[in-house]
Each structure stands twice: as C-alpha cells, then as structure tokens.
Amino acid sequence: MSMMFPINCCVMGGDDVDDEHQQPVWPPTSPPLTTTHGRLTLVRGYLKRKSTRNLEDGGPPRWALRWLEVDPPEEDRPEYMLSVYKTAQKSKRLNAVSLKKISSVRHDDSLPCAFVVSVGESNYTLLARDAADADTWVQSLNDARDVLNEAPGAQCVAS
C-alpha cells in the first residue's frame, strides 16, 4: 500500500529534486519559475502530461511527470519553443513546438488544475500542482503567443 502513495519529504531546491540522481517529486514543492526575456515572460517547471496511448486501448489515462520550459531562440533554433524534457537537467528533449504554432491554451474545465495546449488538430492535456500554477502557465503561454503572433506595425503608438 505504501507504494501507491510515495512519501515526498525533505526535498528542497528550485527544480524539485535533491540532486541529479533523485527523481522529481509530485506535486512540486514550488510554483513554476518565470523569467523575462524581452517582452516575453518565459515559464518553466514540472507538470504532468496526459498520455493518450491507454485511451486508445480503452484503458485509463496515464500521466507522465515532465519538465516543460519555454526556451528562447538560439543558434540551432531561431524561435521560442515550448520544450518537454524528462527532468529539469534537460539532458534529453522529448518534444518541442514553436510557440507560434500553438493555436490555443485554455483551462480544462473537466479536470481541476489542468489545461490544454492545442497545436493544430492535436490537444495536449497538462496538469499543474494547483489552480494558481495552471493560471501562471495559461497566462504566460497565451501572452507569449500573442506577442509573437503580432503583425508588424500592429502596435499602437501614442502621438
């Protein structure tokens, strides 16, 4: 029975791991981290990502704990990307999508603390630690998307 409810005590640190060998904990001990990069607020932190594989087989949904981060442009990728990593050490990128390709980010009314990132016809359900964390992710991703998708010259200039 104790395997169903792991004890997560004594974990400190901004990335919710004690050291590089310990697995991240759920729920995270701290809210998502944010930093300003130009006009954008970049967000990063642990979320649970819903897998659709079991749903196709009629099984219950499975959730995987993942580190998500809005990465700024770099030499090898000229756009802001929402990247998915296995852990905060970012040793292996599992997936990434340009923020410009995200069609919507909205709260999932059917599941508390969850939100949905839509990319074209695909929807990705993510679970935050609490409602405030979900709000941070939804607001940050939508704001960044809006800034990046602004048409040149669409900004109002005070005269």
UniProtKB/TrEMBL annotation:
It holds the Pfam family PH. It comes from Pelagomonas calceolata. Residues 40-146 form the PH domain. InterPro entries: PH-like_dom_sf (IPR011993), PH_domain (IPR001849). This is PH domain-containing protein. The lineage of its organism: Eukaryota, Sar, Stramenopiles, Ochrophyta, Pelagophyceae.
